[in-house]
Every structure is written in structure tokens, then in C-alpha cells.
DNA sequence: GCCTTGCCTGTTACAGTGTAACGATCGGCG
DNA sequence: CGCCGATCGTTACACTGTAACAGGCAAGGC
């Protein structure tokens, strides 16, 4: 179940996960809470940190386990509530096809749409944004008279790194 | 006026798709089984029929219940196996965001991609295909060096029918 | 100070979703 | 006949998610 976490983030963006990304996300959350008068509690911060540092989709129960200490167990239901908050404000994304969560790798708000590239070999998830895809989606939706509220675009396949690894042997 | 084929019917109520659609799907399944030497068993056919006649996404356990009779209970696990077969061959689709299944409304194979428009008000699912979206997706994937295997595009929102109803009421 | 209010969290219990494992059955084939 | 492969029934179990209720804690009004 544990994989090669060095896979992911192809050309589009700098940096992967790790402490830098985590600090950036936490800072964004604090700013957001400040501005909107929301509470960025310890549980929510720790949940965000766990998700941000993993580098692959984490289930709610996995997060709960990581947040638990030998005398202080964190129940999954608490994690779900924290995740509700985080997803609502665009700090983490839910991967519907995996029932798992990943940190938001872009600064976009919760309303915008992202494309998730999920590697079947290493389990990494790469988040990209394409104005072209959004435009064509918007056109199709308008044509169908459909008013979108949220969009899920998840592509499963093999990432560049794993393709190279397979060819190499 | 294409790009959005005959999917203007936003099903409300139990009998949105109707026997015609069902018969067409069953016929396609039989042809497919004939050609590929597969077994289109009674369970698989009945599962397909139930899904095709519902007009909205059905969970595996709902299907099991509909297939069960007062002396002959069908377990969910059997339904899952039938659904595996049906999805593998493009006869039904899985809606990841709902953990539910809908009949395939197009003749496309399992490998192609579809866009699902899921109405939050009436629960109907409309399946459309857009070459434009596929093109832009392909471009983005190629740019990222990602080799796609399956694609999930699910838009939640409000269908045209429900928008009109809300304004009127 | 005290009380109320609202939000967050802990806890329990439970519903819904999906899979593993094993055995039985059936049809085809040497 | 026995073997083989695929399907299906059954049980058991793991994983995912939510409902309901109680306690804590900060903010604001009396």
C-alpha cells in the first residue's frame, strides 16, 4: 500500500509536497480564516498538515490514525468534519474515485475546477488547471442548459515517471 | 446542433428511460457477448434491465433489492460482479461521486469518455459526449506526459428542467 | 459574575459501500 | 468419468460516511 512518493508533479508546477508546501498551505488557511472570520483550529491545521505532507491521497481513517497518539485517539468523524471545512474553502480536494483527499496544489478558490491525474502505478495525484478544458466544458454545459455547481475531472492512468520506469525495466 | 445528442430528456420519476432503451441495451449486450464469446447470463441481463429502467443512478444494494423476490434473495456481492462485467464492456457507467450506476446512453465503447451531468434537485443523470472536451483533455494529458486509462468527468448542478421549475414555482 | 448562544469537538452507534474467501453448480472437453 | 474454467451463493469482514447527543470553550448580553 505504501508507494513511491517521488512520483507526481510533472512539468506544470514547481515543488511537490513536503514541509514547504505544507507551510504555504497553512499560511493560506490562516489568512483565509483571518479574512473571513473563521476558526482555523488545531484539529483543522493538523489535518491539513497530514494531508499536505503525504504526497498521495489519504483516506479519512488513515488521517485519523496519523493524528492519533497512544493516549489520544482521534475519531474518524472528527476528521470528516475537519475535511468538510478544508474542502469547503479549497484547501484540500476530495478524490471521488478513491474516497481520499489531497492537498490543493493551486491557489484557486473552491469554486474553480481542477483536473486530477491519478497514477495507477505509484498512486500519486497531480493537479492541473486548464483554461481550455474549462472553456469546452462551459460550452457543453451551456448547450445542455445545465447550471454547474461543482466539477469532478479525474483521469486514471500512468504518470510520466512510471512510464519511464516500466520501459527501463 | 450537435455535440449534445439526444440527451435532452431529464428524467424525473421512475420510468424515464423506458423499455425501448432497455431493449436496445440488452440487444447490444447480446451482440457483444456473441461476438466476444462472453456469457450474458440471466443475472447480468436482469441487472442491466434494472439499471436501464430506473432513470436515475442506482446503488448496488438498491439493485440487489430490486432483483430479490420473497423467496429468492440476491446478495449485493453478486450484483457487484454483474456490474463489473457490465461496466467493463461499456453497458453501464459508474458515477463515482454517487457510488451508483447508470445505463450507458451512447453506443461508445468502454474506453471512450463521457460527461455526466448530475442534477442535485431531481437526481437525474444526463450523459453527453463532446469531442471538444476530449480534445482539450488529450492535449492537457499529453502535455503532462500522462497516459490515460479511464476518465471521470462528473458535473453536479441543476438541470434545465429543474431551473425552469424553480423559477416558475 | 452568570447565563445564554454558537461553534467546535468527543463519543457512540449505525447506515452504506465494497471485497475476500470458500464452496456449489454448470457446461465444455479430453 | 474427471478436469477445468467461469459463474454464482453465501458468509464474513473491512472500509466509508453520517446521525445524534453530550461536553468544552470563547464571545457577548444581563
Automatic annotation (TrEMBL), chains A, B:
Its cofactor is Zn(2+); Mn(2+); Fe(2+). It comes from the Bacteria. Pfam families: FUR. Zn(2+) binds at residues 119, 122, 159, 162. The keyword Magnesium does not apply. Residues 1-20 are annotated as: Disordered. InterPro entries: FUR (IPR002481), Fur_C (IPR043135), WH-like_DNA-bd_sf (IPR036388), WH_DNA-bd_sf (IPR036390). Gene3D superfamilies: 3.30.1490.190, Winged helix-like DNA-binding domain superfamily/Winged helix DNA-binding domain (1.10.10.10). Fe cation binds at residue 134. GO terms for cellular component: cytosol. Belongs to the Fur family. This is Transcriptional repressor. It comes from Methylobacterium nonmethylotrophicum. The lineage of its organism: Bacteria, Pseudomonadati, Pseudomonadota, Alphaproteobacteria, Hyphomicrobiales.
Amino acid at each position: 500500500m505504501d508507494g513511491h512518493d517521488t512520483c507526481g508533479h510533472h512539468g506544470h508546477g514547481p515543488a511537490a509536497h513536503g514541509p514547504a508546501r505544507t507551510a504555504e498551505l497553512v499560511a493560506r488557511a490562516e489568512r483565509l480564516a483571518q479574512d473571513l472570520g473563521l476558526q482555523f483550529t488545531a484539529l483543522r491545521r493538523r489535518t491539513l498538515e497530514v494531508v499536505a505532507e503525504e504526497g498521495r491521497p489519504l483516506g479519512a481513517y488513515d488521517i485519523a490514525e496519523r493524528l492519533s497518539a497512544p493516549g489520544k485517539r482521534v475519531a474518524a468523524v472528527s476528521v470528516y468534519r475537519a475535511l468538510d471545512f478544508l474542502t469547503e474553502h479549497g484547501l484540500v480536494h476530495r478524490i471521488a474515485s478513491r474516497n481520499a483527499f489531497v492537498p490543493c496544489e493551486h491557489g484557486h478558490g473552491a469554486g474553480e475546477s481542477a483536473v486530477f491525474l491519478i497514477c495507477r502505478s505509484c498512486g500519486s495525484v497531480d493537479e492541473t488547471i486548464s483554461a481550455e478544458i474549462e472553456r469546452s466544458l462551459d460550452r457543453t454545459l451551456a448547450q445542455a442548459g445545465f447550471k454547474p455547481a461543482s466539477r469532478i475531472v479525474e483521469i486514471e492512468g500512468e504518470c510520466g515517471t512510471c512510464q519511464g520506469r516500466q520501459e527501463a525495466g
